[in-house]
Amino acid sequence: MIRIPASFFAALAALALFSGEAAADSVEELLQEGDAFDQRYQAAEALKFYLPAEQLEPKNPLILVRIARQYRHLASDIPSKEEKLRLGGIALEYSKRAAALAPDDAEAQLSVAISYGKMLPNQGAKAQVQASPRIKEAVDKALKLDPQNDLAWHVLGRWHRVLADVTGVKRILAGAIYGKLPSTTNEAAAKCLQKAIALRPTRLMHYIELGRVYAQMGRKEEARRLINKGLAMPNVEKDDPEMKRLGREALEKLK
């Protein structure tokens, strides 16, 4: 049985406790307080301010995007698969609300794609197949609104890589049981990730993900070079440790 740390539940319980002083704050003040915790990846603490801000402005997409991000962070920090999916589902609902309220905001649209993507590793095959076109639709909207969004290019590159790896009998079976899967290539994935690197060369996740694409293509030396480059960079973002873990796994398979 997976044991969930008591501190995690204590942090979640604290989300419902709003002090009289915090309740009296303006939305701007609440967001400033929440942002300070968000920047330190302290999701439970950030939600203590973002959730009251939502109560004051429930149709503010900027708030909803922030809340979705915190629930994704909480999901990544807990070992339970069921709890990951529950928290991921909350993040997805907030993302969808933000996207509906702000159809011209790239971050709101991208939040939907990221939320779907974060849930994929813990879902069954049917849910994964159903999520695939929704991820593509959301990230395409984000890139149409902001072609310079490196994270959107990363998400699109990963989408191509995952689908390019579904081949042969597996693809036929998935299509027959759950619906037709889109066809794509590792080359398409590589182009997206090269674009992401060009836009933001300081993000280690871009290098490791491109390395994983090259590994999938059999271009082992390039894969090793890029993954090692990413592994050598300092952790800056929430997902960096997990991305490095995936990079190390890829390197092991290349031996």
Radius of gyration, in Å, reads 19 Å
Number of domains: 2
Helicity range of the residues? over 70%
Can you count the beta strands? 0
* Reported CATH architecture of the largest domain: Alpha Horseshoe
CATH homologous superfamily placement of the largest domain:
Tetratricopeptide repeat domain
Question: In terms of per-residue confidence, which ranges show pLDDT below 50 for 5 or more consecutive residues?
Answer: 16-23
Compute the average pLDDT: 90
Structural class: mainly alpha
Number of helices: 14
The gross shape turns out to be globular
Termini Cα gap: 34 Å
Strand content: under 5%
What is the CATH C-level name of the largest domain? Mainly Alpha
Could you name the CATH topology of the largest domain?
Serine Threonine Protein Phosphatase 5, Tetratricopeptide repeat
- Summarize the helix and strand pattern as letters: HHHHHHHHHHHHHH
- Report the biggest beta sheet as strand number plus sense, adding barrel if it closes: none
Oligomeric form of this entry?
single chain
Describe this structure in words.
This protein has helices at 6-14, 20-24, 27-38, 43-56, 61-76, 81-101, 106-119, 125-145, 150-164, 168-178, 186-199, 204-217, 220-232, 240-254. The chain is mainly alpha-helical. It has 2 domains: 8-125, Tetratricopeptide repeat domain (Serine Threonine Protein Phosphatase 5, Tetratricopeptide repeat, Alpha Horseshoe); 147-255, Alpha Horseshoe (Serine Threonine Protein Phosphatase 5, Tetratricopeptide repeat), CATH 1.25.40. α4 packs antiparallel against α5 (61-76) and α5 runs antiparallel to α6 (81-101). The longest helix is centred in the middle third of the chain and has 21 residues, at 81-101. The two termini are 34 Å apart.
